[in-house]
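Form 12-C: Joint structure prediction
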Amino acid sequence: MINALLWAPLAFGLVGLFLPKRAVGWWATLGAVVTLTIAVVMVFDFDSGSSGLQHSVDTPWISGLGVDYSLGIDGLNLFLVVLTALLWVGGTAFAAFREWERPQLFYLLMLLAETATLGSFLAQDLLLFVLFFDFMLVPFYFLFGAWGSDREGGPSASAATLKMMIYTLIGSLLMLVGAIAAAIISADGGHLTFSIAAIQQQGLDVDSQRWIFWFFAAAFLVKMPAFLLHGWMPDAYRAAPLPVLVVFSGVLAKVGAYGFLRVVLPIFPDATVEFQEVILVIALASILYGSVMAFTQTNVRLIAGYSSVAQLGFITAGIFALRADGADGAILQMVNHGLVVAPIFIIVAILVERTGTEDIREMGGMALRAPVLAALFLIVALATLAMPGSANFIGEFYILNGLFQEKVVFACIAITGVAMSAYYALRLYQHAMHNRLPDGIASREIGLRDAVVLAPLVLCILGLALYPQLILHRTAPTVQQTVANVTGGDAPEAELAKR
Amino acid sequence: MNFNEPTIDYAGISPIIALTVGLCVVLLSAVFKPVKRWAPALTLLTLAAAAGLLIWQWGESKELVAGALRIDDLAITISLIAILTAAFCVVLSTREPAAEETGSGEYHALLLGSVLGMVLLAEAQNLVSFFVAIETLSIPLYVLCAANLRREGSLESGLKYLIVGSLGSATLLYGMAFLYGGSGSTDFLGIAAGTAHGGLIDDPLILVGIGMCAVGLAFKTSIAPFHQWTPDVYEGAPTPITSFMAVATKAAAFAVFLRFFDVALGPQVDQWQPALAVLAAVSIVVGNVGALGQDSLKRMLGYSGVAQAGYMLGGIVVASESGVNALVFYLAAYAFMNLAAFAVIIARERETPFGDDIRGVRGLGAERPLLAWPLTIAMLALAGLPATAGFIGKLYLIEALVEADYTWLAVFIAVGTMISLAYYLRVVAAMWMRPEGEPAATPVIAGASPEADPIDPEAGRRIYLVGPALVAAAATIFFGVIPQPLVEFAERAGASLF
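Section 2 - Result
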């Protein structure tokens, strides 16, 4: 079943190449829906008591090099897989309502990107993980470059994506070297294997951990992106076609954060403890910088983009609190953030279609004639600023709780980020929806077709707000074990998770 | 006086015999009008026969001709790569102006002569046969580079290659003389025995000899700083010949590089290892930086070849079985990636007035998807992105390097790859992302005058150009997803040397 989950999108995409132009968008959406269905079935099939891998597949792939085709699901990736499948349904369906040049190719790349992303979440072999992690970029490179928009006075779409590729591959290629080094050093002349579990078991000496840790951290921090490594983000976000940005922003950043949980914590426990504070500083810097940028930018895409930088800072801080509740909160927050940022980009796309501008200073007054759109937007905006009652609130609370018990000072600074998120989320909402309607812009209600895409995502936000235990309950055992591995077995239990 | 006639293993040298006979037949066919146009077919037949005989010898490991040559799996794998490339080159040369101007028979006979040199080189086990083979390989190539008689660039390329190549050969020969003087033997195993007693530093004669041999080989494999001829010669030579040179010459030269350093100088490994590692690092940097901003695709691939040679040299630096495996795997992958790229360049060269300029591929994605895909795959594979053979090749090399404690060189490969994205993806972007450029006004490449190379507007649909491009691109993807067969192929080579 896990194979079907991974390869279904690609299979649909390939078949789509031979379909007529008008049908291919719906065919692609069907592919995404099928994938989502499989993912949801897996949630019901999931044994929430176990911390080990489920549905795992493990066969040798390149036996000469010790690389296995090894996939599995556990508490760390279960809901990220579901999130991926869900957002791809949203992004693909939203795209299907619109016209694209060379649609067969567009949807093939879109679904190829889904397979690659799912692959990096599911991979249990270090090299397979690196492979999918790098490969994710290829379809997005084409999607951004060929279907993106050139900016007046700025870099062209292809230049912006080239920058993105070079930035992100800097980290990824070093990660490839690091992965190979980790496997060889841990094998110590014995049987070479890239299985994450095996490398974890064999262990690495502290000196090797130190430098390999940074090779991996570089890859993940660029992908998120974290402060100082985010240089590719503004140009790429402005160039990207919006339906693609929905999935890109919603899921790809999470792969970086997930990488810390899946690879870094298990394989480099000593280095993780040693560099905990360095990463926390980077995370805090991301929170502050992202927030400040988000409330000074006027381009709607960049507001959402920089808010992601801040949110990913929170998630990183949660992971590097090195406590079970912090990490639990981080996973919950990854899903939450994906669920809010995707609707924001869909709403942004709708707004841009109506106003013809991406500048919030030229928007406004939408709410008057479009109450439904405004209501949906309001829910999303409130979730973004982690209003009590939303799942984001619970996620941030867990993260801060974990951080507070471990590093008080860091927690205090991080809390300012929560306050700032209220400002930028409400600013975005107000400028777009309230105020006076500028001349020459027609306010129209959201169309039924876009509502069909948007409403389910908003329903998921609401659903999760009511029942976050859906996620927490299933992730807790694995997270507990992952964190315990770093801190040496006496990980403080997540009191909240038991509540 | 006793004269011991060497016993000759005819089965072992049968591929060489086949190539020699084929060469003569193809050359003679040029004289007889009725069979003249069969030269390409005869060449392909010869190559097929040689390949068949090589596969028949698969798994053998024996000395031939009194130890001057040695047939083993390393020689066979490398020879097969060279023969495969030559076969592609023959197909891609269909209606090539260069082949028609030189005369089809002569052109193909020269090509076979060069292949013969490569097979000999891959089997060379003795300084004398080594040198004879490298000249057999090179001299036909000097002529072939200048085969496009009416194009100034081609003649210039031939002359330049002749001069620089001769310099390389002379250096090599001089180095061999020193080596013979120092070790008392021309045989690789004899050299190993003769130098085993002391370090290189103790014997300046041998040290100089090895240095000069390394320089000579670096010329042939276009490793920086001995690469200056590469971009110019690549650009000027007829493109099918460029593709042949880029892949097959490199493969054969690396084979002898391996044998020379791992067998003859095996005992001295600690002494030459750091020097070669530095050479590899320099080559990676120089090649990748040089390729940035090149508008001519052939020049760009020339510089990229310098960088790739640097990666591959890593396989020799480590002096281990996995290093040989990695190198042979990379060479095979490199063959497919480059052939796909060159096939598309040839098609565009004949189809547009831009020659091999990057403007020739603008908007290719919309105009000729069947050409755009192979070139895209080739570029992504050369850049080492996953799901292509190029990624597995890099993975293999890095694994070998890390195993041998040369992690810093692996980091160089990673950094070099990063730089390389800028120029490989520029080609991809030109194909898929930029709108069609201004209509072609004048041809831009010097020497590509329309009289010399008539434009064939249908070249992008010719099966003899599109077919090889698709086959090579498909192989690149196939071995990126299912690398096991190629890994096993490469492992045979490594096992035969260690």
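Section 3 - Comments
The CA atoms of residues 250 and 341 of chain A lie 6 Å apart. Chain A has 22 helices and two strands.
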